[in-house]
Amino acid sequence: MTATDDLTVTFAALADPTRRAILSRLVDGEATVNQLAEPFALTQQAVSKHLKVLEQAGLVSRTRTGQSRPCRLERDRFDAAADWIDRHRQVWQDRYDRLDEHLTDLRDDDQESGT
User: Fold this and answer.
1) 82 phi and psi, to 5 degrees?
2) Rounded distance, CA 113 to CA 98, Å?
3) Architecture of domain 6-113
4) Any coiled-coil ranges, and where (predicted)?
C-alpha cells in the first residue's frame, strides 16, 4: 500500500465518530472490547467491527494477555496523518497570506488614486 493509500484508509477510519471515540478512550491506555463497548449503546459485535476498521487502518492493534486481547493505540499512524495535515495547512496558510497581501496592495492603490 502506498503512503497515499495509507492516508486514505486512515482518514476513512477517522471519519466515523464512534471510531474516534474509541481512539479517544485508548489514549488513556489499553482496553478490551467489553471495556470499549461500555459507553456506547452498541453491541460488542458492532464495536468489534469498528475495531476491525481501526486495525486495518493501523490505528489500533490487539495483544494477547492470557484470555484477554486488549486493544491499544498505534500512535505512528497518527503522526503520518498529522504530518500530511501540517504540510497542507502550511501551503494554504502561505496562499492566504499572499492573497491578503495582494488585497492590501489593491486597497492601498485605490486609496492613493482616490477611487
Assistant:
1) -65, -40
2) 23
3) Orthogonal Bundle (1.10)
4) none
Nearest to 25 by CA among 9, 12, 37: 37
Mean pLDDT taken over the chain: 91
The residue extents of the domains of the chain are 6-113
Q: Which three cell numbers stand for residue 101?
A: 497581501
Grid cell 502561505 is found at 94
3-state SS track over the chain: CCHHHHHHHHHHHHCCHHHHHHHHHHHCCCECHHHHHCCCCCCHHHHHHHHHHHHHCCCEEECCECCECCEEECHHHHHHHHHHHHHHHHHHHHHHHHHHHHHHHHHHHHHHHCC
Can you tell me the distance from the alpha carbon of 89 to that of 84, in angstroms, rounded to the nearest whole number? Answer: 9
Backbone angles phi, psi at 52, to 5 degrees: -60, -40
pTM score: 0.76
CA distances from 48 to 20, 78, 87, 105, 115 (A): 14, 21, 33, 57, 65
pLDDT, position 103: 96
